[in-house]
Amino acid sequence: QVQLVESGGGLVQPGGSLTLSCAASGRSFSIYIMGWYRQAPGKQRELVASITSGGGSINYADSVKGRFTISRDNAKSTLYLQMNSLKPEDTAVYYCNKIPAWGSWGQGTQVTVSS
What is the pLDDT of residues 56-72, one digit of tens each? Predict the structure, then answer.
């Protein structure tokens, strides 16, 4: 059973930055396409960034393109999301998972962008 542990969220002012981390265990992390998802209050969970197993192909949702950077360290089984120029609409719980997602999810990490 895979275990995903997200961390790094917090409260930040508009224009600020955060770096999220996701530690994966229990499966062969390096073989999977991984993604960062987010779920804002009252909205469906959405995929915001994805990265192939070797990191050679990366995609972003239009809403975060140019501001967020996804990366991975397969030796550490860890996924990262560098978030810059944060906006209030980025407020959400952020999750990591493979694509398509495993049935189990981590607890997520709360990101709140507010002045």
Answer: 999 999 999 999 999 99
